[in-house]
Known about the structure:
Number of strands: 7
Strand content: 5-15%
Helix content: 55-70%
Oligomer: single chain
Strand order of the largest sheet: 4-3-5-6-7
Radius of gyration: 22 Å
Low-confidence stretches: 1-15, 93-98
Amino acid sequence: MAxxxxxxxxxxxxxxxxxxxxxxxxxxxxxxxEQRVADFILKYAEELIYLTVTELAERTQTSExxxxxxxxxxxxxxxxxxxxxxxxxxxxxxxxxxxxxxxxDSLEKLKxxxxxxxxxxxxxxxxxxxxxxxxxxxxxxxxxxxVEIYGIGGSxxxxxxxYHKFMKLGLSTVWxxxxxxxxxxxxxxxxxxxxLGISHTGASRDxxxxxxxxxxxxxxxxCITHQATSPITKVSHVKLFTAAKETxxxxxxxxxxxxxxxxxxxxYAGIANRDYEHAFSRIQKTREASAGKRY
Length: 295
């Protein structure tokens, strides 16, 4: 009986600094000069930690303000903090990078790759997810008169999960995945309301159109997406980004959904923690109400 060589299932580890994940997640939205700095960082990371901001600006033919602006865009206070974090990442433990699924992969190898992809998606997403944007989202959702959650196709189950969680906290929540209903309902919103739109590509026309209508009505709009420059970000006041690697099956991969679900869980916990006792009481009531429906 043939046996599988365990070495065939091994995924080669390489060092992936969290700074790189942040740069890659925002690269397409950077200005040309900022991209030159980003390119240098990605190519000469170990050399960069010995350069001053002036030296880096000279090497990339940009200005000091461009370097600092790039650092701030990827979530750091400035160049010095960026260098400290980069140096830490470069000497830290290696992280396993997800490998592309190949047609001839055995089930064992598929298992290893998919589990690793899902774990990597969470590691990468925590690097690009802004704490400030999370705070804004939690604050808006917590005080909303009404919360509407939009998701089409593969994003619909994620929107339903958010509805399920927010409803248990006592938020007045609606889940919609029909384009006509989203358009009509969003037109009736007010500045006291919040819309959460979920789209991995950020290019779902139905969701984007409804969010634009909601935004014009004065509602606060929040998106969960992977693409920093996608259409959905143009109609969102608050932007929550994931950083899941695409597989051979594109955005249908579970890794992207796990990252989105984890953001939803974080919003749920953040809202609950604002008034812990009240939230706990509401959750207990919903559990008791559905307890009789279980064997």
